[in-house]
Amino acid sequence: MKIFIVGLGLIGASYAEGLHQARHHILGYDLNESILNEAKSLGFIDKGSSLDDMSQAEVILLALYPKDNVSFLKEHGHLLRKGQIITDVSGTKVWMMNEVEAIIPEGVSYTSMHPMAGRETSGFYQRSPYLFTRANLMIVKGTKSKESDEMVIRSIASDLNFGKISVVDAYTHDRLVALTSQLTHVLAVCLMHADHEKETKEATGDSFRDLTRIAKINETMWSELFLENKDILLDMINTFEQELDVIKSLILSHDQEKLKAYLRQAKEKRKSFDIH
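RE: above sequence
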């Protein structure tokens, strides 16, 4: 399959290298010409690849930030042709998918996806063709999706060794990532800001280190994702605050039996995630 990848950061470059290893023909583009040339010299981007090659690809994968994906299509949408599939790997969907659907011409389909994988470090040099092994993937359908798009994306996912694949709409996706990804990053950041003890570095155990690992954050990307998903994320933060109030009241009332029940319910729910 001939795949054109726009953006060679951590995710885009990992897709490019992994799909090249799976014997796809990978074309690519990055604003940073030195990064694009490095990918060409390493051999996982076609050495003759240029922006004009976007017209020749069967699949165009947008791996920029959401607003940049939209801007790219506004500027270069004239290169699209009938029969192509557009997809992306962005962390929020509702706003961006509405914008993309309004831009692309008739005959071009669009089905988004979101790989639930990453690292606390970012950029081309952090890439790995194995980054997505056993990771969850969400396929996100919209008004410009075709049934055949899902088959193509599932084929790409298989070549990258993704694990569980779910199919959702954009709103459901944004609610899920608000809870499972964005809220967890908010908590990690707030936990670090809550630290006012000078001995913390010497007193941490695995629990603190595991909970705060993702506070080593790409602030440009995550601030954009937080704001694009503002209403849903705020709803999740409010829900979490309500649960904090519950456990706070149980501690204040010294009600050990109810506290144990609350902890036990969380434990059993978490254990259910491990059943496949």
